[in-house]
Structure formats: structure tokens, C-alpha cells
Amino acid sequence: MATLYLVSTPIGNLEDMTLRGLRVLSEVRLIAAEDTRHSRRLLQHYGISRPLLSLHEHNEQARIDQVLETLDQGHDVALISDAGTPAISDPGFRLVRACLRGGHRVVPVPGASALLAALVASGMPSDRFLFLGFPPRKPAARKQWLSEVKEEPGVLIMYESPRRLPSLLRDIAEVLGPSRPLVVARELTKRYETFWRGSVRDALTVFAEAPRGEVVVLVGGAPKEAPRDLPSPVREVLHDLMLAGISASQAARLVAKLTGLPRRRVYQAALAEAAGKHAEDKQVEPGT
Ligand code: SAM
């Protein structure tokens, strides 16, 4: 069975090419590449000379047939992008799907990717994150896109061109709020690699002008709801229900259904309500 290899290439520092990646690239029959001129120079650097096939966003569908033909003949093919891991904000997904449908093996050869490099050194929690790729370019669509992830508790990771960074930050401040922590990872693995760490509010000033180089933007996840942070009429209904002997989970289910608020949020408030009541009971107990 022939194999399509997805080979990661460096995102700046040429030493970040894996030994396995180099071996695979020198052994395959064909290398599909986003920009063949760029990739030819990269491969030359490693002393690799294999036939290249251009496969980019605009011709991916048409080139899939050529790759499938090569695989059908029993020859292995590699896919690389201009930088980093193919199919991550780069072409590849449609090719992978077509190869799997065609009964071929698809094998990743992992290596550099800007999102993970940025995350692990950002200082933000790395146990839960949401990779969002590039934001929409139009402001209205971008705001809508941000509002869809407003409640996400994990770190939000975005790619963006430095030119659009100032306007993205303005929208982040408006939609997600100015207080969240934010990291801009710039020129990763390159000579002028920098990590700026601060708040959304401070980033607006620091990046009022577009920086130079490539950037990854990381925004802290949604802050945990303050348990009592429900509109006061809703809190009162919750309070009354629980006073009438309804359990916290039942009261939360009812209130969430009636108000459309997230059940978890209401439940947290109900638990806080129950804990508060318990504390109050305790306070009054001794004297009564
Ligand atoms: N496939 C690549 C990967 O695995 O990271 C991403 C390709 S995407 C077209 C290019 C975007 O990735 C850039 O606009 C930038 O947001 C980010 N990026 C790539 N290289 C970077 C670097 N050295 N430093 C910071 N960001 C980088």
C-alpha cells in the first residue's frame, strides 16, 4: 500500500527539521508543495532533490488526482507546506481525505508548528486550548467569530498577519473584554523571537502599530463565572425555589430552562446559594 506522508518543515529555524522528515523527503517519488520555488530552496539546503508538484489552496482539488495516480501506481508521496505542519492553516485536509477514501495510508511526520511552539512557552495553561486559525478579515464577521468563543474556558490561539494585529486586538477588547491575559508570540524560532505577555488592554497600546514579522496571538480563556453573577431577579427565583425545598440541581435545571442561561452557570450559583444558606443557618444556630 502506498503512503502519503505529511511532513512538517521548519517555521524559521532550519535546524528544526527532523531526521525522519529528511529521510522521508529523500525517499518519496513525489513531493507536493505549496510553493515549489520556496520548497526547492529549502530542499536544496538539506541536499534533497526530488520531483515537486505545486499544490496550493487554489489548485488543491485538481492536484489531488495527480497525487492519487502516483499512489495508485504504488509510489509514496510527501506533502509539505511553506512552513510548519501541513493542513494546519495550510492546504492538505482535502488531499488527506481523498487519500483515505482511495484506500491509501496517511502518515504524519511531526515537527514544527507555530501554534504549539507559541502555546508551550506562553506561560498560559496548556491543558486546554482552542486553535482558531486565521480570523475573518471583515470586522463584523470577526466580531461574530470572537463572540462564538466568548465562553470557552481554554486558551484561544489565533494566527494573524502583523498588519491586521492592531484591529484584531481592538475587536478582542470589545468582544472578550480588556482584562484577559494576552500573549503575542513573534518570529518564533527566528533570531528576533519575542514573547510579549500582558493584558488585552495593554496590548492595545503596545501594538497600536503593526509589528514586524509573523505572530501568533493567545488569549486567556473565559474567566470562571463568579457564582453569584446572575441577574438579581433570576437569583431571587433560584433562592425562592431552594427555600421551598427544591434541590440545587433541580432548581438550576428549571431556571436554566426558563431563562436560557447555561445550566452549569445557574447550577454554580445555586450551589453558592445553598452554601450561603448553610453558612447563614450556622450563624443563627447558636443564639436561637
Ligand atoms: N502550517 C503552519 C504551522 O504549522 O504553524 C502555519 C501556516 S499559516 C499559513 C502561517 C501563520 O502561522 C502566520 O501568519 C503566523 O500567524 C503563524 N506563524 C508561522 N510561522 C511563525 C513564526 N515563526 N512565528 C510566529 N508565527 C508564525
CATH architecture of the largest domain: 3-Layer(aba) Sandwich
H/E element order? EHEHEHEHEHEHEHEEHEHHH
Could you please say which CATH topology of the largest domain applies here? Cobalt-precorrin-4 Transmethylase, domain 1
User: Ends: how far apart?
Assistant: 82 Å
The total domain count is 3
* Ions and ligands: S-adenosylmethionine
Keywords:
five-stranded mixed beta sheet, Cobalt-precorrin-4 Transmethylase, domain 1, about 290 residues, about 45% helix, alpha/beta, elongated, disordered C terminus, binds S-adenosylmethionine
Walkthrough of the structure:
The chain is α/β, with parallel strands linked by helices and 288 residues long. The protein has three domains: 3-112, 3-Layer(aba) Sandwich (Cobalt-precorrin-4 Transmethylase, domain 1), CATH 3.40.1010.10; 115-219, Tetrapyrrole methylase, C-terminal domain (Methyltransferase, Cobalt-precorrin-4 Transmethylase, Domain 2, 2-Layer Sandwich); 232-283. The protein has helices at 19-27, 36-45, 60-72, 93-101, 114-122, 139-147, 165-176, 200-206, 232-243, 248-259, 263-284; strands spanning 3-7, 30-33, 52-54, 77-80, 105-109, 129-133, 155-160, 181-186, 194-199, 215-219. The strands form two sheets. The protein has a five-stranded parallel sheet with strand order 3-2-4-1-5, sandwiched between helices. The chain has a five-stranded mixed sheet with strand order 6-7-10-8-9. Helix 3 (60-72) packs parallel to helix 4 (93-101). The termini are far apart. 30% of the residues are buried. Residues 278-288 have low confidence and may be disordered. S-adenosylmethionine (SAM) binds at residues 11-12, 81, 83-85, 88-90, 113-115, 159-161, 185, 187-190, 214-216.
